[in-house]
UniProtKB/TrEMBL annotation:
Any one Gene Ontology BP term: oligosaccharide catabolic process
Family: Belongs to the glycosyl hydrolase 13 family.
UniProt cross-references to SUPFAM superfamilies, sorted A to Z: (Trans)glycosidases
A Pfam family recorded for this sequence: Alpha-amylase
Top-level taxonomic group: Bacteria
Name of the gene this protein is made from: malL
Protein name per its UniProtKB record: Alpha-glucosidase
Length: 553
């Protein structure tokens, strides 16, 4: 293996603390399949997203991150890319993408697109030619083809497992094996090959020339594999987070790739960004991806996977801020995305990871989710919002087996395979064939009563989750103590309560199931549940259970 957790990090340039829009941005993730359908085929598309951009502007976000819309056989919902410069017909055309990016810019919204460099589709031109030409083909060197072990090469080249379950190797008709850390339809690129690096430089330029503001890099930790592809020797199913150092994840060689990309982006000015989806064992390892000459942001999965518990939250907040401070990168905060159970459902259940199968206590989950949102938006740095969380959507946990499409659901011992529940198309209207998602149905069935959670139903209701998000984002944008920063000052608080200050601002969050009496730190701005609390003559107030309150000081 080429690196260990105890190995010293490569020396980084001095921290860059220059202003950048991403340092305090609120970025909204759009999952194109499930956001808005313009043509009525039941699948979300780029024209649908384009029509809904004014909603995102009104919501108060700064940028839109689009999950993959590239030409793809859709074996893994578009994360198996056949052509990185083409739009899949189910989503529209390249002209639609250009129009969307231009409209977003006209509204003051920036656009970040997903980039999938760890693997391609097995229908990518390179891979198809590599298969057709057989062993010895130069195209096979751009992937990881190997002879098998055993008498007749009948065993995989090593013991690596797919994240989706089963071996990470598939045998071809000619007897060789190829590596795929995810589905068999997603062969891994060999990033030691110069043609792969050249191709992705070209892909970056293609989209930068069209006008995107940055890239979210999928599986950013997975590009480089340890020399010799050594066995792991462990019996536990590999996970994206929690297995420690693996010979195919978080290898030091990935940083050379991102330093090269950062130099390329600089040719387009200083406002184009790279965002790492890097599942690493610690936030300290994550910080390596955002050194001043590498990426600009990295997702904070340690925060996402933390339960609604004051002690655990304080620990991960402190660790996250401390890890990013030396490299001068903004800390990011995220509660949900397209790969995990929505936090309104996670917090409705006892602690149990990021993929759950039970609905739990819906009212409790929503209450905690609203409180967690205000806590997240009060922290220094940048925040990510996954589509529909501003509506308080729960996960759809009772989808029939026959409608599920998550590839990991169909493979033994991999991820739990219940990601479809967070991908059900979001509701826009109370009535309609798909609650306003489009003029037809929806690719995953929406549950009964979905329209009651819609944008239409919640707009104008001061107690709705949507209006809470709108209010919180407006305050965050205007209050001088919120947004970018590197530190919080913790205040004395009872067990189960988080209280911290920032310039002219204080946040109090009660993670317990009982109300707590505290001294009011100032004038209440916003509460996650109900009206702002009343302050008694003695200067105290009651902080309800599972509630966060913002104060201006």
């Amino acid at each position: 293996m080429t690196q260990h957790l105890t190995a010293p990090a490569p020396t980084a340039p001095a921290a860059d603390t220059a202003p950048g829009w991403w340092r305090d941005a609120v970025i909204y993730q759009v999952y194109p399949r499930s956001f808005a359908d313009a043509d009525g085929d039941g699948m979300g598309d780029l024209p649908g997203i384009r029509r809904r951009l004014p909603y995102l502007k009104e919501l108060g976000v700064d940028a839109v991150w689009l999950s993959p819309f590239y030409a793809s056989p859709q074996a893994d919902a578009g994360y198996d890319v056949a052509d990185y410069r083409a739009i899949d017909p189910m989503f529209g055309t390249l002209a639609d993408a250009e129009a969307l990016i231009a409209d977003a810019r006209a509204l003051g919204l920036r656009t970040i697109v997903d980039l999938v460099p760890n693997h391609s589709s097995d229908q990518h031109a390179w891979f198809r030619q590599a298969l057709a030409e057989g062993p010895g083909s130069p195209l096979r060197e751009r992937y990881h083809f190997r002879p098998g072990k055993g008498t007749d090469g009948e065993l995989p080249p090593n013991d690596w497992e797919s994240i989706f379950g089963g071996p990470a190797w598939t045998r071809t008709a000619d007897g060789e094996w190829y590596l795929h850390l995810f589905a068999p339809e997603q062969p891994d690129f060999n990033w030691e090959h110069p043609a792969v690096r050249d191709e992705f430089r070209s892909i970056l330029r293609f989209w930068l020339d069209i006008g995107v503001d940055g890239f979210r890099v999928d599986v950013a930790h997975g590009l480089i594999k340890a020399e010799g592809l050594p066995d792991i020797g462990a019996g536990e199913q590999v996970k994206l987070l929690g297995n420690g150092v693996m010979p195919f994840f978080d290898q030091d060689g990935v940083h050379e790739v991102y330093r090269d990309w950062r130099t390329l982006l600089a040719e387009y000015g200083d406002e184009r960004v790279l965002v790492a989806e890097a599942w690493t064992p610690t936030v300290e390892r994550t910080a390596h991806y955002v050194r001043p000459d590498e990426m600009h942001q990295a997702f904070n999965f340690q925060y996402l996977s933390t339960y609604w518990d004051a002690e655990a939250l304080r620990e991960v907040i402190d660790a996250s801020l401390a890890a990013m401070r030396p490299v001068g990168a903004p800390t990011t905060w995220v509660l949900s995305n397209h790969d995990v159970t929505r936090h309104a459902t996670r917090f409705a259940n006892p602690p149990g990871g990021t993929q759950l199968r039970t609905p739990g206590d819906r009212a409790l989950g929503l209450r905690r989710a609203r409180a967690a949102t205000l806590l997240m938006l009060a922290l220094p740095g940048s925040a990510y919002v996954y589509q529909g969380e501003e509506l308080g959507l729960p996960d759809v946990t009772d989808l029939p087996d026959e409608v599920r499409q998550d590839p990991s659901y169909f493979r033994a011992a991999g991820q739990d395979g219940f990601r479809d529940g967070c991908r059900v198309p979001i509701p826009w209207t109370v009535e309609g064939p798909s609650a306003g998602f489009g003029p037809g149905g929806s690719w995953l069935p929406q549950p009964e009563g979905w329209g009651e959670l819609s944008v239409e139903a919640q707009t104008g209701d001061p107690g709705s989750t949507l209006e809470l998000y709108r209010a919180a984002l407006a305050v965050r944008r205007e209050h001088p103590g919120l947004g970018a920063g590197e530190t919080v000052t913790w205040l004395e608080a009872p067990e189960g309560v988080l209280a911290f200050s920032r310039p002219r601002f204080t946040c109090t969050a009660n993670t317990t199931g009982a109300p707590v009496r505290l001294t009011a730190p100032g004038t209440a701005l916003l509460a996650s549940q109900g009206a702002a609390p009343a302050v008694a003559e003695d200067g105290t107030f009651e902080l309800p259970a599972d509630t966060t309150v913002w104060w201006t000081v």
